[in-house]
């Protein structure tokens, strides 16, 4: 009999503690969301910029280890993300000519990786990273750390 009571009490305590954690997490999430007053556009552009900066870091590591296949795959994935998320906003803000120049430098990077040109690839990674640092404020995205 006492085992049944003990089991029931433990089950109830476990249920209450789990339910309580869920409420706490939800309240914290709401508090955090109201803390940051970012527009949807800025929030939606922040992630691609973070992905691009991290991708350049990883690409540099792949190239340093002469893993050009991984660098090429990552380059193509990031190019897709750039075209889908960043380029349309950049064209709207600065025009096709400016945006085309930024895109052309990225295409040069992809080509250098395809040719397994280590020195040129690393130089273009730095150049493309600097381009992102330049265009992020134009699009209202804060770049706190990109290295």
Describe this structure in words.
The chain is an all-alpha fold and 147 residues long. Helices cover 86% and strands 0% of the residues. It has five helices and no strands. It has helices at 2-35, 40-64, 68-94, 96-114, 118-138. The longest helix is centred in the first third of the chain and has 34 residues, at 2-35. The radius of gyration is 23 Å and the shape is elongated.
Please write out the topology.
Blueprint: H1 2-35, H2 40-64, H3 68-94, H4 96-114, H5 118-138
Helix pairs in contact: 2-3, 2-5, 3-4, 4-5
User: How many whole angstroms does the radius of gyration measure?
Assistant: 23 Å
Mean pLDDT score, rounded? 80
Proportion of strand residues: under 5%
Question: Which class do the helix and strand fractions yield?
Answer: mainly alpha
| Poorly predicted segments | 22-42
Number of helices: 5
**Share of residues in helices:** over 70%
Number of distinct beta strands: 0
Largest sheet: none
Secondary-structure element string: HHHHH
Spatial shape: elongated
């Amino acid at each position: 009999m006492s085992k049944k009571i003990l089991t029931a009490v433990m089950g109830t305590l476990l249920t209450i503690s789990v339910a309580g954690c869920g409420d706490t997490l939800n309240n914290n999430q709401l508090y955090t969301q109201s803390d940051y007053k970012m527009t949807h556009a800025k929030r939606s552009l922040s992630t691609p910029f973070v992905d691009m900066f991290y991708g350049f870091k990883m690409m540099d590591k792949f190239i340093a280890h002469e893993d050009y296949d991984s660098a090429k795959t990552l380059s193509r994935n990031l190019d897709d993300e750039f075209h889908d998320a960043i380029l349309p906003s950049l064209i709207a803000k600065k025009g096709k000519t400016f945006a085309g120049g930024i895109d052309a430098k990225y295409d040069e990077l992809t080509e250098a990786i395809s040719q397994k040109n280590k020195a040129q690839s690393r130089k273009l990674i730095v150049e493309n990273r600097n381009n992102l640092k330049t265009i992020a404020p134009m699009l209202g995205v804060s770049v706190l750390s990109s290295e």
